[in-house]
Amino acid sequence: MIYNLDKLRELIPFYLNNRLSEKERKEFEKALDQYPELKLEFKEFSEIKEIYKEIEKEIPPPSSVLYQRVLKNIQPQIKLSLIPEKKSYLEQIREFLKWVLGSPRVSWGIVAVQFAIILVLFITLPKGDGFITSSSREPLPGEGIKINVIFDKGSTEQEIRKVLNEVGARIVEGPSTEGLYIIKIKEDQDVEQTLKELKKTYVVQFAEKAY
Amino acid sequence: MSNGPLAGQDLELLKKISMGDGEAFRQLYDLTHRKVYVYLYRLVHGKQTAEDILMETYTEVWRCAGKFKGNSRATTWIMGIARNLAMNELGKLRRHDNIDNFPNLSNGVMPDPEPMDRQRRLNEAMTKIPVKHREILDLVFFHEMTYQEVSEVLDIPVNTVKTRVFYAKETLKNALSSMGVKKDDL
After folding, report:
1. Which of A9, A64, A133, B72 is deepest in the core (most CB within 10 A)?
2. Chain A residues whose beta carbon lies within 8 Å of the beta carbon of residue B55
3. Structural domain includes residue A177
4. Residue A169 neighbours by CB distance under 10 Å
5. Structural domain tally of chain A?
């Protein structure tokens, strides 16, 4: 078979790189026997190809942190492309509400939280069937009359006791964080008179009937 | 002659990168960087410079991924970018007054008096030939590119690639004889 020598020469690198088809390869090998000048050229290129088998071993590997360097260089651009466009607060709230209202999990979660709060309040709050006012911390029982009293901070226990004895009263509760005591007098005592007597003393700063 | 790996897959990858996909970028880097680094290392003959240019190359890849048309392999396209940057760098460093010039070996370089093995002789001769010849031999025999791919990397016509390969081989032969090595000594 007659071959075009120039075309065959062009095929040498591809023969050496194993990139010819089986058919091309066989034809090329036949041509090598047929053309001594092609064979010579082929030998020279083969020598060059041989060099490259060794070359890669001599090249030091690239630095392991090279990718980090590349990344650092393009980081601002990556960040920009990864961050979604910022939404307005109104849109964010709308989306949040949409999510909350559309999610059965959230609804059940809210129910559970409410139940837990009720349970905690039920357990921890003081038991009682009354209410608290600023003038009376306890519901009024049927016997005795209660009076809210604040004593002077400088007065001693002895002085307080003396005053209470004089008016025939006793402390039933207190002091509160505000320094308020609840004292009790008998049902048949004159409340107004007792209050006057209490207010007269320097020991009492405040005295009013508790309701 | 068999064609290279799938350019379609490369196109897909670069499309993702152009849309800011960092994962795709990492994938492309892992697939191609070793080949590009070796090419650059051979071109500039230095690890640090090769790494610097490699870094610039992949920054460009990230920036210009959308321009890749998929007519060639991604590696070919990336090596074209790497080559342009390397040539700029070589120009800046003035390592070569003219990279196309053939070094005057017969006047300046004396043959090594020590006996050298075949491999070392060829290797040394390789370093003495002009960059444009070493480069084309690298692309054809080391990177095993087709003439078409080489023409894309070097941005020259395919016919020029074909003839330059043979000139490069002749230049290498001349370099060897200038080193006092005859063809039969190899």
Report:
1. B72
2. 66, 69-70, 73
3. yes
4. 24
5. 2
